[in-house]
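User: quick one, fold this
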Amino acid sequence: MIREFKGKKPIISKNAIVDELALVMGNVLIKDNASIWPHAVIRGEEQIIIEENAAILEKAFVESAKIGKNSIISHGAIVHKAKIGRNVLVGIGAIVLANVEDYCIIAAGSVVTKEVKEYSFMAGIPAKIIRKIEENDIEKIKKISLELREKAKYLIK
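Assistant:
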């Protein structure tokens, strides 16, 4: 469902996929090949930008944020007033309340309260750096992003 909110209507690329059971409202820009999955909520009170090939999966909530190219916001994750860099994986049920730079993984269930520097693997409550991201981690994120782009085509009737 696409809705106007506070006088702003979402702008969605014709090449993006937004499931009919998702809610996208307000000041939102969704770019090419991004996918918004069932029951995701994107509420743009302040501007939200979903970059190319980003995926917002089932039951994720995004408010006043920027989601970088090829990034994945997993099932039930919350991103609130934060910038997510490129090639970032936010795990299932994670809560992100601070900026995350490029090439990072936020483990499932983690709570990010402080800025995350690039190439970090974060876990815990509050999230702490566990290790640096390696090239094979980045390749896995890119692979999952491509797989999600293909699977998203099945969301279209």
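User: anything notable?
Assistant: The chain has one helix and 18 strands.
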